Amino acid sequence: MDVETKIGTGFKGPPILERFSLKEIFSIFLDLDHENIPEKISPSCFVREMQMSTEQRYKKLVNPLRKLNFEKELCQAEIYFKINPNIVVFQKCQIGETYNIRLSVCNSSKILTPLRMTCENSPYFKVNYTSPKVITSLAPGMSVYFDVKFTPEEQRDYKHQITFLTEKTSFIVPVYAIGPRPLLDFPDAVHFPKTYVKVPAIKMLMVSNIGEVAAVFSLTAECPFTVQPSKYALAVGEVMQVNISFDSIKTGNYAGSLIINFVTGEKLVTSLHGMAENANIMLSKETVHIEDTYMGFKRQTTLTLHNNSDHIVHFKWGKYQSREEEGLQMDKIYQDEVKALDCEEFLFSSHNFSLIPLTGEVWPNAFVEVTIVFNPDEAKDFQTKSYCDVTGLEDRIPLIITGRGLGPLIELNLASLDMSLIYLCSVHSYEGDIPGTIVFIEKPLVFGGKVECTPRSYMLVPGDYKVFVLNFSSAKEGDFFEDICFRIEESQEVVSFVMNIAMHITCTVDSLESNGPMPAFGPVITRQR
User: Fold this and answer.
1) Which end of the chain is more exposed for a tag (fewer CB within 10 A), N or C?
2) Which Gene3D superfamilies does this UniProt record tie to the protein (predicted)?
3) How would you label 181-219 residue by residue, b for 16+ Cβ within 10 Å and e otherwise?
C-alpha cells in the first residue's frame, strides 16, 4: 500500500486534533535565549521533553539555575518582580483529573508596589490566591502565591494566560496544557559505513510510534542522502521501516539532515553522516590502436575492465567527459526528453567504431571484456574518444581509439614507358583484398598533344589483371615526357607512370622522272620529327 493510500483511506486510528506549535515554548523547555527558538529538535530530545509529567516539568521550570527568559514584556517585568515559574505548563494529563501548579510573584524592587491579578473565566483553568486574603500590594522582598488548576475534558492542547497589573506596567504569564503528541523513536544520528562513489549505502531503520496518538508526518533528506517513504501515517504502537540511502557522486566526507515534519508543525532532525571514496577499478589500457583495415571490412580487438572492489559495479560508455557536459546538453532539451536521451544521446556512438557492450556490470574482484570494432568507410586515419562511467569512480575513464582505413590496393605494372610508336599497350595489375575501380584521368598534356585511353575505367576484383590501350598524338616535334594518371575511385588515391615519347619522321627522294623539262627542287633535305 502506498503512503498516500494509507494516509487517505486505509489508516485507522485515534483522531488527530488541532494543536498549537511547540516551537514557541521549546526555547523555555531547552533553557535557550528568547532569540534562539529552535527550528529543529532531535528525536530523543523531543521524546524526553514530551514524556515528562507535569510535576517533572514544574521542577525543571523552577530550577534556580535556569534562565528566566520568555516574553519580552515578562522580561521587563522581572526588573521589579521575580516570577517563578515564568511559564505554566501542564502535560501528560488524564481526562477528568485535576492538576495544580503553584505560581509565585516576588517584589524584587526596593519600594512597595501595587499588584493585581486577573484572568478570564475558563471551564478548564482556575487561578486562586493560596492565602485567604487577597493581597493588592507587595512590600520589597515579599511574595504572593497562586494555585493554577487544570482539568482536561479531552486529549487536546489548551492555552490560557494570567495577567498581572501594576501602576506602571502589566505582564502576562502564559499557561499551556500540552496534549499528547506522536512520539517516534528515530535515532539522533545515522552513520553510514565507508562506501564507494556512486555506490549507494542503505541504512534500514525500524521506527515505532511510542506516543499516545497517531503520527502523520513527512520525511525529507538533504543531498546526497535520500529517504523512503516520504510520507506516512503511523498508529500508536505500530512499527514502520524507513530506508535511508547515501549515494555521492564525489569523494569526501558528507553530513546532512533527515527532517521529520509532523502535521502539528514540529520538526525533528536526525543527523546523517557518510564518506565516499574511489574504488580500485581500471581499464587494461586507455589507448587502443587497431591495425590498418580495408574500407568496408571490420577489424576488432579487446580490452578489459577490472573491478578490484568488493561491490558489483555498473558501467556505461558515454560521449562526454563529465555530468557537467551532459548537463549542458540537457539544458537544451525539454525535461520529458531527458530520460530517453540518457539512454540514447549520452551513450557512445560512432560511425566507424563500436564498443560492445555499451553498458553492463562487473562482479566483485572480476573483470569484463569489452570488444572494439573498427569499420572504416574512407581511406584515412580515424580517431575517437569515449568515457567509461563506472560506479565506484568519481571521474570517468577516458579511452582513445585510433585506426587507419585502407582503400583498394591497385598498382600499375610500370613506373615509366619509352614509346617509339603511335600505339601503346599498357598493362595494369591489381593486388589487394577488396574490389576497386580505376579510372583514367584525362587532362591537358604539358607538351601538347592528346592521349586517349581505352577503356576509360576498369572494375577490378582481388587478383584481377587488365590492359589499357593508350593512343598518343601530337603536332609537335621533339621528345615528350608526360605523367599519365589514374584514380582509384574508392580511396581517391592517384597512381601514375611517366611516358617518354620520341617521334622521328624521315622523307627520302631517290629519283624523279619527267617527259618534260625538270623543275628545280633544290637540294634534298632529310627531316626528322
Assistant:
1) N
2) Immunoglobulins
3) bbbbebeeebebeebbbbbebebebebbbebbbbbbbbb
Residue-wise pLDDT for 314-327, tens only, equals 999 999 998 888 87
**What CA–CA distance (Å, rounded) separates 201 from 199?**
7
516 touches 491 (CB < 8 A): no
Q: How confident is the model at residue 463 (pLDDT cuts 50, 70, 90)?
A: confident
Q: Are the C-beta atoms of 421 and 502 separated by less than 8 Å?
A: no
CA-closest candidate to residue 28, choices 64, 78, 68, 58: 68
What's the rounded Cα separation, in Å, for the pair 352 and 376? 5
Are 407 and 436 in contact by the 8 Å Cβ rule? The answer is yes
Confidence at residue 19, expressed as pLDDT on a 0 to 100 scale: 67
Encode pLDDT of 468-486 as tens digits. 888 777 777 777 788 888 8
Q: pLDDT band at 53, cuts 50/70/90? A: very high
DSSP 8-state secondary structure symbol assigned to residue 518: P
Q: Could you give the C-alpha distances from 401 to 64, 135, 250, 301, 404, in angstroms and in order? A: 78, 97, 27, 11, 11
Query: Which segments of 420-464 are extended strands (E)?
Result: 423-430, 436-440, 450-454, 457-460
Backbone CA torsion sign across 427, 432, 436, 441:
negative
Q: What are the backbone dihedrals phi and psi of residue 44, each rounded to the nearest 5 degrees, phi first?
A: -65, -35
Domains present along the chain, CATH in parentheses = 52-178 (2.60.40.10), 189-277 (2.60.40.10), 281-406 (2.60.40.10), 410-503 (2.60.40.10)
The whole-number pLDDT of residue 274 equals 96
Element (H, E) at 253: strand 252-262
The amino acid at 432: G
Can you give the pLDDT at residue 22? 74
- Statement: the pTM of the whole predicted model exceeds 0.85: no
Task: Give the pLDDT score at 409.
Answer: 74
Q: What is the share, in percent, of the chain residues with pLDDT greater than 90? A: 49
Rounded to 5 degrees, what are φ and ψ at 368?
Answer: -130, 145
Q: Specify the residue for cell string 490560557.
A: 160
CB 196 within 8 A of CB 392: yes
Alpha helices for 422-502 (secondary structure H): none
Record the cell numbers describing residue 516, joined without a space: 618534260
Side chain identity at residue 517, one-letter code: P
Strand blocks (E) in 157-214? 158-165, 170-178, 189-191, 195-196, 201-208
Q: Inform me whether the pLDDT recorded for 46 exceeds 60.
A: yes
